[in-house]
Amino acid sequence: MKGETGKIWTLHLAVIAALFAAQFLLPQYHATNLARIMVLAVYAMGYNIAFGYTGLLSLGHALFFAAGMYAMGLPIWQLEWLPVPALILGLVAGGVMAGAVGLLALRTAGVSFMIVTLMFAQAGYLTLLYLNTWTGGDEGFVVERAYRMIGGVDLAADTPRYLAALGLFSAGMLGCLWLVRSPFGRVMVAMRENEERSRMLGFNPFRVKLIALVISGLYAGVAGAAYGLLFGYVGATFATIQYSILPMLYVLMGGAGTVLGPFLGALAMFYLIDIASGFTDAWLFVVGAALVALILFAPKGILGTLRERGLKWLP
Amino acid sequence: MSFGPFLLLALLEGTVMAAVLALTAVGLSLVFGVMRVVNVAHGEFFMLGAVGAWFITYYLPLPPGLAWLVALIIAPLVVGAIAALADVTILKRLKYDPEATIVATIGLLYILQQAALTFYGPDARPVEPPFSLRLQFPWFGYSGYKLFVVAAAGAILLAVWLFMTRTKAGLVMRATQVDMETARAFGINVDRVYAGTFALGAALAAAAAVLIVPIQQAHYLMGHDPLLLSFIVVIIGGLGSIRGTLIAALLIGLSDGVISMFFSPTLAKIIATLLVAMVLVFRPQGLFGARA
């Protein structure tokens, strides 16, 4: 156990160090991609906390992502807030939205849970369109460069943006690592594996699942807020069902219930689409075929399969 | 136009919508009832029906009415065959695990959408109605074709009902729905029943699309709304209950027609989606289903 802890920390710190080094080694195009991937990976890590560890298959995480994004963007756009409080509001909005949805949706399970979350997310998306005078509707709005300065640092410039994404990603990953190795993390897994037995052991499934969903929502919220702030655009596309499917795809590909899986999945999927779009514009097909192939042949994903084949210590 | 005729128009539009919706939703309900599969790609089968109708009417050197009639028969058959293929190659291998099949049908949704985009293109294209007849009311004229859609949808639904209750194949399907294990023990080829049910469900969606496409144009993204509305109808009617599905289709179609006419279509959809979420949370057996 002692040796495993050392191995685990070495691996995760090495990933962060490698990502830090990558900005000096990679051409700018790929560095910007990587910044994008890291923010999306934070979103996927949040999804993984609900789906991978707690067994809550949600189809409505775009609602939490968009809640964070709009809670960050609207105050800046309409009320000229500063980025830091806006970012914090985005984080909180994701968690609050997840809590509100969870209070209702967690009364159901399985397929019903999927559909209820899907419907709430759809209602949220339609509300964004309906209130287009305040939200900018379908077109969304641009977060002006002047409002993307934190303490004199311009987040729209390449290096600060990369470092901000890396900072958020590192915090998210270490937080996730700590969470899943904590006693509460074990209870989350127990809920996924056997809810009835955990109930008999005296845990309250509703409470555990609600907390897990709120943590997941906080991740999604801050990822949405950071995405809007770092890349300067807030729009209703980010609330569509597609943005609920993407983190699921990343998590399935990288390995559900692994700390590094979401990042690996986001990286693989992003470049799969990027490379595929080089010679075909049929990227929807790539997404669809990846989903079908994963669920058919590798439901455990990359890291899940590795863990099965010997790397048992992988968290 | 005063309020009365305006309401009549809204109700007429709502009835047309309800008829097509009932056809689509019964397909989804059948698949869920017999196979316990939530088919997220159902809307894409609807879209394939409409796109297929465009291809058939465009390339077949027949008078428009006749070509459309051919489309009404051929398009559902082709779409049904595609669905049966998807069932055998994908869903069966997942052993119909509910969550895995949802992920797989989401994948199927993207694949079919891309196929339509690649081979049919991003444009919305019209299909000529098989006949043009205008019924003159005292206040406004109304398309006779739309009323024909209602009648045709009703006829197809009646045929489905007769098939389910009066034929051996329907009996086998119902037996599989009640107890798959026992059905298998009695020598029923459950794999074939599942493939057939999935094909029938898809074919019903395609038939609904062929009926509506002269009114609505064919487009590769058109499957989204029917999918959402079918979900709403199937859930409110009670998952797997055909009778509940029909009542709910009428209810949702009419109220959607009225709310869209007097308020905004977006608001109508927001209310409907929230209603569904609430029904699933507080009354999972549906508004018309029996308490389990």
Q: Please tell me the total number of domains of chain B.
A: 1
Query: Topology as H/E string of chain B?
Result: HHHHEEHHHHHHH
Strand content of chain A: under 5%
Mean pLDDT of chain A: 89
User: What structural category characterises the helix and strand content of chain A?
Assistant: mainly alpha
Identify the overall geometry of chain A. globular
Calculate the terminal CA-CA distance of chain A, rounded to whole Å: 12 Å
Quick one: overall form of chain B?
Answer: globular
Going across the biggest sheet of chain B, name each strand in turn. Answer: 1-2
Q: How many alpha or pi helices of chain B?
A: 11
Helix content of chain B: over 70%
Number of strands of chain A: 4
Distance between the termini of chain B: 48 Å
Low-confidence segments of chain B, given as residue ranges, are: none
The major beta sheet of chain A can be summarized as:
2 strands, antiparallel
What is the alpha-carbon Rg of chain A in Å?
19 Å
State Rg of chain B: 19 Å
On the 0 to 100 scale, the average pLDDT of chain B is 87
Biggest chain-to-chain interface with counts:
A-B, 37 and 39 residues
Question: Main sheet of chain A: which strands, in order across?
Answer: 1-4
Helix content of chain A: over 70%
What does this structure look like?
The complex is a heterodimer of chains A (315) and B (292). With 315 residues, chain A is mostly helical. Helix content of chain A is 76%, strand content 3%. Chain A contains 14 helices and four strands. Chain A has helices at 2-25, 28-53, 61-79, 83-105, 110-130, 132-135, 158-181, 183-193, 195-200, 205-231, 242-254, 261-279, 283-297, 301-308; strands at 141-142, 149-150, 153-154, 233-234. In chain A, the strands form two sheets. Chain A has a two-stranded antiparallel sheet. The mean pLDDT of chain A is 89. Chain B has 292 residues and is mainly alpha-helical. Chain B has one domain (10-221). Chain B contains eleven helices and two strands. In chain B, strand 1 (134-136) and strand 2 (141-143) form a beta hairpin. In chain B, helix 2 (42-59) runs parallel beside helix 4 (98-120). The radius of gyration of chain B is 19 Å and the shape is globular. The model of chain B has no long low-confidence stretch (mean pLDDT 87). Chain A binds chain B through residues 57, 59, 104-105, 107-108, 110-112, 114-116, 119-120, 122-123, 126-127, 129-130, 245, 248, 252, 282-285, 287-292, 294-296, 299, and chain B through 38, 90, 93-94, 98-100, 102-104, 106-115, 117-118, 228, 231, 235, 264, 266-267, 269-270, 273-274, 276-278, 280-282, 284.
